[in-house]
Design goal:
Elements lengths: L9 E3 L8 E4 L5 E9 L6 H18 L3 E11 L5 H17 L3 E9 L4 E10 L15 E4 L5 H9 L5 H12 L3 H9 L4 E4 L4 H13 L2 E4 L10 H6 L5 H10 L3 E3 L5 H6 L9 E5 L1 H14 L4 E7 L3 E4 L1
Parallel strand pairs: 4-5, 9-13, 10-13
Antiparallel strand pairs: 1-2, 2-3, 3-6, 4-6, 7-11, 7-12, 8-11, 9-12
């Protein structure tokens, strides 16, 4: 039976809610290890590969780490044209190169539906790690990408999404969380996660529980992609949105004025979503100013309180 006490250098593992495993090498370095892969979320194979790579790298950024090495993971149909396979791998390679990451090989198997992603290794200073339990009372909650990726890509699968909306969402999903993570380290933050399949409220619930705090979000302050509300009203949510609501909904108190589709937008699974950062109030304005200098979008969407659970005003 696995006993974490038997492995003192395993700083973050199965018993923790965080985004990647953490193994201490010495007092100055810990190894961040993660993997992620999934089926296509967009039609273009190059964009699919790029999104999958950005998504896999994000878990290292969410821990405050710097990725440096990766391996491809691919499950591909045997009759898939080689041009499509090449485009998927090229998309992943280009994003890895942008992140300063070497893809040193990988493994493929045959499957009926394409699946692609990365195993990623990174380094982090164990004294400066970002964790889900790092938030403190009074912190401002800051988000680095808008919401609405899942509801839009599902609309695409149903032939309901406009090309402009798909282009916008694809651009966000391909965007690395590198600059947002660097800002978190520069300003000495301790609490963070990336918003992916469990949705904003799912991952926020994990953060709130780990920090033993209550998180408050202001719906009017939350950023959404241009088509998100329209597709939400048409209820083009992926199945994971209902699963997220079923699992996390009991921890959330919504304002009575919020309609069902608005609530569901906050349970919408995100692929390669942004970082949710807990920012001490005395560093908040300076961090926003520095982000503007770097061209890194940030939205202040709430705050942390004493208590437990989530509230959305």
């Amino acid at each position: 039976m696995f006993n974490p006490a038997d492995y003192p250098d395993l700083l973050v593992g199965l018993g923790d809610p965080d985004d990647a495993a953490l193994w201490r090498i010495d007092d100055q370095r810990a190894l961040v290890v993660t993997t992620d892969f999934f089926t296509p979320v967009v039609d273009d194979p190059y964009d699919y590969g790029a999104i999958a790579a950005a998504n896999a790298l994000s878990d290292v950024y969410a821990m405050g780490g710097r990725p440096f090495l990766a391996l491809n993971i691919a499950a591909l149909p045997p009759d898939l044209p080689v041009e499509i396979t090449g485009a998927i791998l090229r998309g992943g390679a280009d994003i890895a190169r942008q992140a300063g990451v070497v893809i040193a090989g990988g493994h493929t198997i045959q499957d009926k539906e394409p699946k692609y992603g990365l195993v990623v290794l990174g380094f982090v200073d164990p004294q400066r790690t970002l964790t889900k339990g790092g938030a403190r009372p009074g912190d401002r909650l800051v988000l680095s990408k808008p919401l609405g990726f899942g509801v839009t890509t599902t609309a695409l699968k149903r032939s309901l999404a406009s090309p402009e909306d798909v282009l916008e969402v694809t651009g966000w999903m391909k965007r690395l969380n590198q600059d947002a993570a660097q800002l978190a380290l520069e300003f000495g933050l301790r609490g963070a996660t990336d918003i992916t399949g469990f949705s904003l409220l799912g991952h926020a619930s994990e953060m709130a529980q780990a920090a033993r705090l209550r998180f408050r979000f202001h719906f009017s302050a939350l950023p959404f992609t241009l088509g998100a509300r329209r597709y939400a009203q048409e209820f083009t949510f992926p199945g994971g949105a209902s699963d997220n609501r079923l699992y996390f909904g009991g921890q959330v108190d919504f304002a009575a004025s919020l309609q069902e589709f608005e609530q569901m937008l906050l349970f919408d699974p995100q692929t390669s979503g942004g970082l949710l950062l807990a920012v001490p109030p005395e560093r908040h304005e300076a961090l926003l100013a520095r982000a503007a200098q770097l061209g890194q979008p940030l939205w202040t969407v709430g705050e942390t309180l004493e208590g437990e659970g989530i509230e959305v005003l």
